[in-house]
């Protein structure tokens, strides 16, 4: 925001905020806008810090356990071991072929 105000001033324009009424026309208005920008930046940092702390606490409490698996990986591996191709498996499991390929590649690298 402050960069935008600076660019406007470089081109000879002034910025006026209607609510609260502040203008960059005078030095005092420029100081007020700078202070408001700094306060807003600090508040964003505080919010991010509180969010990070909340996420860490939730992880310690066991609230974050990862997402639910939408596809039965074992069934995909079983169908593949029975000789079915990725297209057939994808149709049977109602998922994309790419997801089948990912699971098959992960299954072979884990073995």
TrEMBL record:
- Which residues belong to any copy of the Resolvase/invertase-type recombinase catalytic domain? 1-62
Q: Which InterPro entries match?
A: Homeodomain-like_sf, Resolv_N, Resolvase-like_N_sf, Resolvase_HTH_dom
Matches recorded under PROSITE patterns: RECOMBINASES_3
Q: Which domain of life is it from?
A: Bacteria
The GO terms describing molecular function are: DNA binding; DNA strand exchange activity
* First and last residue of the signal peptide: none
Q: Which family does it belong to?
A: Belongs to the site-specific recombinase resolvase family.
- Name of protein: Transposon gamma-delta resolvase
- Give the originating organism: Mesorhizobium plurifarium
